[in-house]
Every structure is written in C-alpha cells, then in structure tokens.
Write a structure and sequence with these properties.
Blueprint lengths: L1 E8 L6 H11 L5 H13 L15 H6 L6 E6 L3 E7 L7 H8 L4 E7 L6 H12 L4 E7 L8 H15 L8 E6 L23 H6 L13 E8 L11 E5 L5 E2 L3 E5 L3 E10 L2 E3 L1 E2 L4 E6 L10 E4 L5 E12 L10 E6 L2 E14 L6 E2 L10 E14 L10 E6 L5 E7 L1
Parallel strand pairs: 1-3, 1-4, 4-5, 5-6
Antiparallel strand pairs: 2-3, 7-8, 7-15, 8-14, 9-13, 10-11, 10-15, 11-12, 11-14, 16-20, 16-22, 17-18, 17-21, 18-19, 18-20, 21-22
Length: 415
C-alpha cells in the first residue's frame, strides 16, 4: 500500500493535534482503550466535547500546556493509503523540530486560526515548507465554527496567504485552501453542511487523491551502496550483489551505470528483492543489484545511471538549520553524514543568516545559535556525490555531527 508522510504546522492553539485526533477518530483509527481514555479525560476537564488533542500530545508538558513540543509521528490507514503524520511544533523556539519533521515529508498541512488569520508564525511555517521544497500544501483555515462559518473570513485569509506566496523562492507548489473545524469535524474527513459555499474536497479527501508521482521533485535515480553480499554458498558461489535503497527514480535491468567514486562503468544484470527477480527497482525500494562486470564496490559507493551523474565536490554550500546549544562558528570541525557516507568537514564561512519570515538576510552573522538558519560553506576531506536539494531531496541533504559529543547538531540542504 502507498505510504504518504505529512507534516503539520500551526501556531499555539491553532488545533494541529485536534485535527489529527479528529482524523484518527473519523477514520476509526483510535483503539478502544485510547478512545475511552479521551472520553474520560474530556469529562474530567468538564468539556462537553471530546478533546481529540489527547490522541497525539504524548508528553506530560504537552498535555498540561495544551501545546505540541516534540515531533510526534502518528500512523493510520484508509482503504487507499497508509499515512505517517509528523505533528511538529510551530513555535519559534522549536524551529529545529519543525525542520526535522518536515524534511522527509511529501505533503504538509499548515493550520491558521480563522479568528487570527495570517500571523508572524504563519510566515515561518510557510518559509520552512518552501525551504524544504514540499510540493503539496494544504492551508487548513481552522475554527470556522467560531466565525460563524463565514465565507468572507475564509476569503480574506486566503487573500492574505496568497500575498505571502508571492515572496517564496520555490514556486512549484500546489497549495489548496480548505475551511475546517477540527473540533466539530467540518471538512476534515466528512464534508460539512455548514459551509455550502465551499465545493471542493475535505482534508482527507485531498490527501487521498494525491498522486505521489506529482509530489516528488526528482526523477534522478541514486543508489548508495549499504552492503556488499558474497554468500559463497554452493548455489551462489560466485554471487556478488550490492544492497541499498533506490532514491529519486527507477533502476532497470540493462541500464548503463557508473560507480562512484571510481567512475567504473557497467550494466545492471539482475535486480533481487529477497529471492525474487525483478526487471525494475522502483523509487524507494530496498533491493540487491548485480552487475554484468566484476567491479570493486564497497559500502558508501554510489551507483548512478551513466547519463545522469551527480556533483562530485570536496566543498559545498548549504542552508543549515542549527540544532545545538553550542554555536556553529567558522573553522569549527564536524562530520558530515551524507547518506551512508561520513566525511570530515570544516566550516569555511557563514555567508549569511536567513530570517525565516521572508524579511531578508543578515550578512553580519558571526555564528549560529540554536534554531538559526543560514547559508554556510564547508570544505570536506574527501568528495561526496551530491545533488542540489531542490533537485533531489534525499541526495541533496545531510546531517552535521559533533565530533566530540557524537550529537546530531545540524541539518543541511545543499545549494
């Protein structure tokens, strides 16, 4: 079954957790004990409704404050798709959490409180979705029940958001506006009879009809080798296979390929999934590949099509989201983990800090503090085989590791 990962974003009390809880409830994805716990807690709080945010806010601090702090991953399925929802916090101090949750998502839901409209945090949420090249965005204008389901309010907020869209750098996005009440269930899973002026899909209806071919931004196949298989059994005495996951596009038996960094050429001979043979290794499938030639390949090498090579560089410029309390400064040394490859890197320059509200850049930044986003230059001790993030989200991204603590301290998106 097709799996779709979705990120959510919204300001304090915009209703992200309630929206996800409502989807789980209306799709009958809540277990009996979870539903009973929600009913009991809602009653104890004196609510005359079910508090669906209890379905996702798992930390004690989240439940006490009614906000989302950490990134929670929620799983549910319909007859058509399986979904992974990254419930990310929207507050400025949790920018790093939002980047983490959204960086691997194929679609996004941005919530706006119908009473407040487009606010400063909305700028940040849209900026991060634009930075991360998320191609399909639902702008869910929530709490329509508190503005009498007003079409005028909805249209005014939509107009303000469309003005914000004019400031974006990445314009190849499909943005849909849906008026909802997560608490009441209007236009979440089921169509609302309170807003006859809205004729389009519900939130879940929109997600159900998404074609994944239209939300990936690359047809370029990349196959980082994770392991070399040499069974040396009686039946497979001379077998040499290369295991990994296909990113970006498909690989086919007979494709002319290049192995990096050696630049050795060959053809794909066989594609295995367990003990079954296939003619095609589809995007995001984990397979074993054999080649027509006996080639020296090891973990960390990359197999690509011969007519579609990545960049091979010992230096890189990347937009970095800094996630650590210890500042990033020029001349600091880190490990860049790019796929299965790890290389040593030194920061050569902080070119400018980026204000995540479309208000411009700061060219005077001397260091990066936690949650800062900036364009940073690195020099590497050996080359990596990368693409620009805007061309290939997987092969164009990396993480930074502190060599002293072994902590992940930053996420990078190659320019």
């Amino acid at each position: 079954m097709e799996v779709l990962k979705i990120a959510t974003a919204g300001s304090v009390d915009d209703g992200k957790s309630t929206l996800i809880g409502r989807i789980l409830y209306d799709t009958k994805s809540l277990t009996t004990d979870k539903l009973e716990a929600i009913e009991k807690t809602s009653k104890q709080k004196g609510y005359d409704y079910l508090d669906f945010s209890l379905a996702t806010d798992g930390l004690v601090a989240e439940r006490e404050q009614g906000i989302t702090i950490d990134v929670a991953h929620i799983y549910f399925s319909t007859a058509n798709k399986s979904y992974i929802v990254a419930d990310t916090p929207g507050h400025v101090e949790y920018t790093r959490n939002m980047v983490t949750g959204a960086s691997t998502s194929q679609a996004s839901i941005i919530l706006i409180d119908a009473r407040k409209g487009v606010i400063e945090q909305t700028y940040r949420h849209f900026f991060i979705n634009n930075l991360l090249r998320i191609k399909d965005i639902v702008v869910a204008i929530n709490k329509m029940d508190l503005v009498d389901y007003s079409e005028e309010v909805f249209n005014a907020i939509k107009k303000d958001f469309e003005a914000l869209m004019e400031q974006r750098e990445y314009s190849d996005q499909n943005i849909s506006f849906i008026p909802i009440s997560a608490l009441k269930g209007d236009n979440v899973v089921n169509a609302s009879d309170k807003m006859p002026w809205y004729k389009s899909k519900t939130v879940l209806g929109h997600l159900e009809q998404l074609d994944k071919k239209n939300i990936f931004n690359s047809g370029t196949a990349r196959f980082p080798v994770q392991a070399v298989v040499r069974p040396k059994t009686e039946d497979f005495h001379d077998f040499r296979g290369y295991q990994g996951k296909v990113y970006g596009g498909d690989l086919n038996v007979g494709d002319d390929i290049v192995v990096l960094p050696s630049k050795t050429t060959s053809k794909i001979k066989e594609i295995y999934f367990y003990n079954e043979k296939y003619d095609t290794a589809a995007r995001r499938s984990s397979v074993t590949i054999t080649l027509e030639d006996d080639v020296n390949i090891s973990r960390g090498d990359m197999i690509v099509k011969s007519d579609d090579l990545p960049q091979i560089n010992k230096s890189l410029n990347a937009v970095v989201c800094w996630m650590d309390s210890t500042a990033l400064k020029p001349n600091n040394k880190y490990t860049v983990q790019h796929g299965v490859n790890k290389v040593l890197a030194i920061v050569t320059d902080i070119e400018h800090k980026i204000n995540p509200d479309f208000s411009g850049i700061d060219k005077e930044a001397a260091q990066l503090e936690v949650n800062d986003i900036a364009l940073v230059s690195f020099k590497l001790n050996r080359p990596i085989f990368s693409d620009r993030f805007q061309d290939h989200r997987t092969n164009g991204s990396f993480i930074l590791i502190d060599n002293n603590t072994n902590n992940t301290v930053g996420a990078g998106f190659i320019q």
